[in-house]
Design brief:
This protein is α+β, with helices and mostly antiparallel strands and 537 residues long. Helices cover 45% and strands 9% of the residues. It binds protoporphyrin IX containing FE (HEM). Protoporphyrin IX containing FE (HEM) binds next to helix 13, helix 14 and helix 18. Keywords: Heme, Iron, Metal-binding, Monooxygenase, Oxidoreductase, Signal.
């Protein structure tokens, strides 16, 4: 069925006449319909422990929303001025959150220029929100200004910015290919090829002192190349040719600007919602550039794909992502553009940063690194490839990745709009409230995680006290039906690259402690100057 005839009208925004296939299996494996008043398990993988009452009967007897503890600030403006006067507080938002929790408790309100945020710090409260979600978990956009860009450019908002039935249909189509383990594994051969080429390139980048100048950027280029290969089945040479280097630089810079500007706007007065401020204009310009590049790639891929279909030469393992998306009933042409945009660039703020964090943590912990390297050697084939069986058999490296997520996560929080009136911690949290599920603070709390500041992958092994750790404490990809749709790609690429790097190099770190900088998500606050020492040298 994959080779159903597709008639392509050229041009990125053009209408595509498609064969429509409905996949009966496009249903959510974890979806449990439920009402807000009942406490129900959210995810089969999660071994739920304590539960907090979420009965709506409690709601009326709770203290009103206005009584939720909050730091002092001017009405409506809240803490806006504080951030305005000292922007370093935005960059170290992790410290602000820690302080909020220490001073006000596990449920805290924060107002920033008219935006009322309720921070939930306790894993039990977080569980309560997940448990109360129905068929369509509601989220506010993570980058509100990017959503504005899409709206004003006649693009669809994309998965992370959609809610309700629209989100559900799109999500079903996308997750069929991205989240089903067997489907995601079909992308592993392509990911292996990109990783092998990157390893060849890496060797030549190592300076005499063992460091790779501009490592952060090289890793971003690897992420971008792998992402382009995943969605377009095209090699872009982002880390190989002069042209590729220049183009990847521009995309990486534009993406970085988008996050910096979106953060600035989030903490500013919402004037940008009324007219286009210089920051919003700059953000729109950068989005224009990224969008054009993604569209160009999509056009090229579509041309090659159509030719292969017409020639009858489309191999089973080619253009996997495009084939599926073009055949999906619920993916409009506009949706396709937005999804491509997301899959192409999401790695820059997620997988690529997480790989850097893992390298930093392994370089800092030699004993654990050697254990991980031992496992890495057993995972790769003689030609250095990761098979799906090997991926599934990894234990220690996975624990290392998990521990690195705890210490250096992708984000500080997961966002939600409360699905109904909730009684949380004795307070009324009305339907539609902007919620930040902050498990980061607790995952560094020594009262909850022994030796919280130390890197101990062993704590995540089954024969440890692993099952005593609250399952809602560390959820880097979130849980339930809204869980990260790129999770499998990210996990495959991370494990693959770490196995390859650890097999070839021993890593060292000779600098001070690395922190993270907040810009809606988190990135290392410095160049990750890991020293690479060849194991066979
Ligand atoms: C280490 C890497 C990554 C981490 C830790 C991560 C984490 C997350 C988290 C926490 C969410 C929010 C889920 C929720 O609201 O409940 C999310 C959503 C999402 N992620 Fe990722 N992500 C990663 C990589 C990626 C990649 C590589 C892609 C693209 C292929 C991607 C695409 C998405 C999309 C489209 C959503 C929105 C899903 C929806 O709302 O239905 N992510 N991610």
């Amino acid at each position: 069925m994959r080779n159903a005839i597709l008639v392509l009208l050229k041009g990125c925004g053009a209408m595509l006449a498609r064969s429509r296939l409905v996949y009966a299996s496009q249903i959510f494996a974890n979806h449990v319909p439920h009402h807000c008043s009942k406490s129900t398990a959210v995810n089969n993988e999660v071994n739920t422990q304590t539960s907090v009452s979420s009965s709506s009967d409690d709601y009326d007897s709770c203290l009103p929303f206005s009584k939720i503890p909050e730091p002092r600030g001017l009405p409506w403006f809240g803490r806006w001025l504080e951030y305005k006067l000292d922007y370093s507080k935005v960059h170290r938002r992790d410290l602000i959150l820690k302080k909020l929790q220490a001073e006000y408790g596990d449920i805290v309100k924060e107002t920033i220029a008219g935006r009322h945020i309720v921070h939930l710090f306790h894993p039990d409260y977080i569980k309560q929100v997940y448990d109360s979600e129905g068929k369509y978990p509601m989220v506010p956009p993570i980058l509100e200004s990017v959503e504005m860009y899409r709206r004003s450019n006649d693009l669809t908002p994309g998965l992370g910015n959609s809610n309700g039935e629209v989100w559900y249909k799109l999500r079903a189509a996308v997750q069929y290919i991205l989240l089903r383990p067997k489907k995601a594994m079909d992308f592993l051969p392509g990911q292996n090829k990109v990783a092998a080429d990157f390893m060849n390139r890496l060797d030549g980048l190592i300076a005499e002192n063992g460091e790779v100048p501009d490592l952060n950027r090289w890793i971003a280029r690897w992420g971008l190349e792998s992402a382009a290969n995943n969605c377009f089945d095209i090699r872009m040479n982002y880390f190989e040719t002069k042209e590729g280097l220049e183009l990847s630089n521009r995309i990486i810079n534009a993406n970085s600007d988008v996050f910096d500007l979106a953060t600035k706007l989030y903490f500013s007065l919402p004037i940008y919602r009324i007219f286009q401020t210089p920051s919003l204009k700059k953000l729109f310009d950068q989005e224009d550039f990224i969008n054009e590049e993604a569209c160009k790639n999509l056009d090229t891929a579509l041309e090659r794909y159509t030719k292969a279909v017409e020639d009858g030469t489309l191999a089973e393992d080619r253009f996997l992502f495009l084939t599926h998306m073009l055949q999906s009933e619920h993916v409009s042409d506009k949706d396709l553009r937005t999804i491509i945009l997301s899959i192409l660039t999401d790695t820059l703020s997620t997988t690529s940063q997480i790989l850097l964090n893992n390298l930093y943590n392994l370089a800092n912990n030699q004993k654990e690194q050697e254990k991980a390297a031992d496992e890495a050697r057993s995972l790769l084939t003689s030609s250095g490839e990761l098979t799906s069986a090997a991926f599934n058999s990894s234990i220690y490296l996975r624990a290392c990745i998990k521990e690195s997520f705890r210490l250096h996560p992708v984000g500080l929080d997961i966002l939600r709009l409360s699905p109904c009136n909730l009684a949380i911690g004795g307070y009324q949290v009305p339907e539609g409230t902007y919620l930040c599920l902050n498990n980061y603070v607790h995952s560094l709390d020594p009262a909850i995680i022994p030796k919280a500041e130390s890197y101990i992958p062993e704590r995540w092994l089954r024969d440890s006290d692993w099952d005593k750790i609250n399952p809602y404490l560390l959820t880097p990809f979130s849980l339930g039906t809204r869980m990260c749709v790129g999770r499998r790609f990210a996990e495959q690429e991370l494990l693959l690259m770490l196995a390859k790097i650890l097999t070839s190099y021993r890593l060292e770190w000779h600098y001070g402690k690395m922190h993270q900088r907040f810009r809606m998500l988190l990135i290392p606050d410095q160049e990750v100057k890991v020293k690479f020492i060849r194991r066979d040298g």
